[in-house]
Amino acid sequence: xxxxxxxxxxxxxxxxxYGQSQPPKVxxxxxxxxxxxxxxxxxxxxxxxxxxxxxxxxxxxxxxxxTMAERKKAGSRTIKVTKINSVAEFKKGQILYVSxxxxxxxxxxxxxxxxxxxxxxxxxxxxxxxxxxxxxTNKEGRLxxxxxxxxxxxxxxxxxxxxxxxxxAN
Length: 170
Fold this sequence. Notes:
35% of the residues lie in helices and 24% in strands. Helix 2 crosses helix 3 (61-71). It has helices spanning 2-14, 24-39, 61-71, 106-113, 149-154, 161-166, and strands at 40-41, 51-56, 73-74, 77-84, 95-98, 119-122, 133-137, 143-147, 158-159, 168-169. It has six helices and ten strands, in the order ααββαβββαβββαβαβ. By secondary structure, it is of the alpha/beta class. It has a single domain (2-169), classed as Rossmann fold (3-Layer(aba) Sandwich), CATH 3.40.50. 36% of the residues are buried.
């Protein structure tokens, strides 16, 4: 357990020395998203084939995730990243990243996903957005994330204790 906590701490520390191809905020989002692939447990029916991440709407996170997917894997699974322009385009995947452009349409996203084992991640959560994970700015002005345990349970997902400790309670 200490090893996993140390790995998460190192991932977060890398943000300060990570390359400058994207703004630091986007790099941090990418690092968090990769951590989610490792520290969230999906049910068996969602644990086969490629690990699919869909980005809903315009966001620089798409480019960051594509770059990450070229170098990393989710366990032994290849990471596949796609960009979609509407909720209707989402067919399947393990993570759905909802850009700020779509935060006002969160109810449509939630209706489309239902209780499928999909980790819904929102960018700077708007009121009423209750994704499994919501990126927020903490009291110190740094990027952090909220972990919505009720939404995680609804989607049959389990967060590791390490991920839960790093999150802001929601």
